[in-house]
Amino acid sequence: MSDKSNMEDLYQDPIATAEKAAAKIAVLTGKKSHDVALVMGSGWISATEAFGKPSHEFPVTDLPGFPAPTVEGHGGVIRSYEIQGANGTINALVFLGRTHLYEGKGIEPVVHGVRTAVKAGCKVVVLTNACGGINRGYKVGQPVIIRDHISMTATSPLIGANFVDLTDLYSKRIRELVKKEDPSLSEGVYVHWRGPAYETPAEINMLRTMGADLVGMSTVPEAIAAHALGAEILGISLVTNAAAGVTGEKLSHTEVMEAGKAAAGRMGELLGKVLHKL
Length: 278
Ligand code: 8IG
Known about the structure:
Bound molecules: 8-iodo-guanine
Strand order of the largest sheet: 5-8-7-6-9
Mean pLDDT: 91
CATH topology: Rossmann fold
Oligomer: single chain
CATH architecture: 3-Layer(aba) Sandwich
Order of helices and strands: HHEEEEHEEHEHEHEHH
Number of strands: 9
């Protein structure tokens, strides 16, 4: 199928396209359903090492509705893992890379992965990202659990009179489980900034005044779309730079890619353990 007609299906009927993509995952993996989905953001690939070897791996473009990815470091690959634990085996669907709003393809491709995951059976969706730290107490390389968010993009993945409640969007139950496993973790409020330009120092001051701790260009639409389909959400941010104006340093993409590796490995082990307690 050409990328164009593949994408037209997605814009026409996003939920039906997610159902088709989920059916194709079942065919490609031989697994009727998956239990949990993880979306690995930039710098998070090393977290997957803790899950062992995937049983299956394929490019997202093998499925209907996924555009070819465009940003360096975002693989556009789906893996299926069978993660063994005390309570048996968990089928995990892991997305390496995601589509961002700043790519200009609209909101549908941004949330297609998580919708596909929920239609594939996933009751929990773990969203990871790399972000800027607004909170002056954060250090580069620190993972932070997302407690709540502020959307600054003026866009939603939902259309129509779908008045979804977001009071417990980032599941309190799962946040407590994670903090029990690692009490050193902080929680923070994540702002979704469309990008692709980073914020100005003045905008960072504004966001801090609004109650924000973290700022990035992903996660929020995915959390809303997956929650609207009934999934529970865990969000974890890796602070890979101080937000604009916090230290006086300029922001660069390569710094971002390197900062996260050690913390991501530690988070992978944590996630591997937590998945069995969900
Ligand atoms: I990594 O400082 C990363 N992503 N908006 N601001 C925004 N996105 C980011 C930042 C940042 N760092």
